[in-house]
Design brief:
The protein is an alpha/beta fold. The protein contains seven helices and 14 strands. Strand 6 and strand 7 form a beta hairpin.
């Protein structure tokens, strides 16, 4: 979004190299930002996404105002009707219309306080949000797993309405057409082409980890005191660990702590409370 206009740099794709190369070549900014134009382009691009997919928009907004050609509230309502989830990360200060846009569409809004905080805000949007049962209809999707074409002389691959020369590529298993990258749809038969790593990433996010149970400092201190009275550790060579052993180590971040078995276990000397 520059000079009041919204420009698409790259098409929707799971290839990070394509997006990174486009962003690096278009880092300059200028003029007024139009949140309305950018949001409208994003909604037009995502409205054709099937119901089982997430329609998410992440806006990195560094301006203090938005210069729009019309009523931006109508665009926000359009995004809400098409079930597009808009999240905004502010780089300067909080802007009311950005917070309103995130609240109306069910997204998140945050303002970066520093470089590290900015990284945390952006990376917080990497895992996909939970799917709602009403939006995730059970349907089968026909997919193809193409074979990668061996590197050799340049070949022609169709991309949309044009074509480009490429070395290698992928061959559609249904019509044997050549495509440049994955995931994509075959331009001849329309088959959805993916690879097994793409499915593995999607499957990984279906089972998020359980939330941590917060423990107060007083409860942790009391548990450590009770555990120290139930255990005995001999400091001699070939020392023995007796009784049900519980060890705790206070760390600034939650980490897994391994506990010894209730049976007696020989230690190689020295005092051990817990193993991280």
């Amino acid at each position: 979004m520059r000079n009041g206009r919204s420009e698409r740099l790259s098409e929707l794709s799971a290839s990070p190299e394509v997006h990174i190369s486009k962003l690096r070549s278009n880092l300059d900014a200028g003029g007024d930002a139009s949140l309305m134009n950018g949001l409208q382009m994003a909604v037009d691009s995502l409205r054709s996404i099937p119901s089982y997919g997430h329609r998410e928009v992440l806006v990195l907004f560094a301006a203090l105002s938005t210069c729009d050609p019309g009523n931006i509230l109508d665009t926000v309502k359009s995004a809400q009707q098409h079930k597009c989830r808009v999240s905004v990360v502010g780089l300067a200060a909080e802007v009311h219309i950005c917070r309103l846009c995130a609240q109306e569409t069910g997204g998140m809004y945050g303002v970066a306080l520093g470089e590290k905080h900015l990284e945390e805000l952006v990376m917080g949007h990497a895992p996909p949000p939970p799917s709602r049962a009403a939006d995730s209809a059970a349907s089968l999707v026909r997919m193809g797993f193409p074979q990668r074409r061996a590197e050799g002389p340049a070949a022609m691959a169709l991309v949309g309405q044009g074509c480009k020369l490429t070395s290698g590529g992928f061959t559609c298993p249904k019509c044997k057409a050549l495509v440049a990258e994955l995931p994509s749809s075959c331009h001849v038969c329309g088959l959805t082409l993916v690879s097994s790593p793409h499915l593995a990433r999607s499957y990984h996010h279906l089972f998020p980890i359980k939330p941590f149970v917060e423990v107060s400092a007083d409860a942790l201190t009391q548990t450590m005191a009770e555990g120290s009275t139930r255990q005995r550790l001999q400091s001699t060579e070939g020392s023995i660990w007796d009784g049900p052993s519980w060890g705790f180590l206070v760390v600034p971040q939650p980490r897994a702590v391994s506990f010894f078995d209730e049976q007696k276990e020989k230690l190689g000397g020295g005092s051990v409370i817990g193993i991280i």
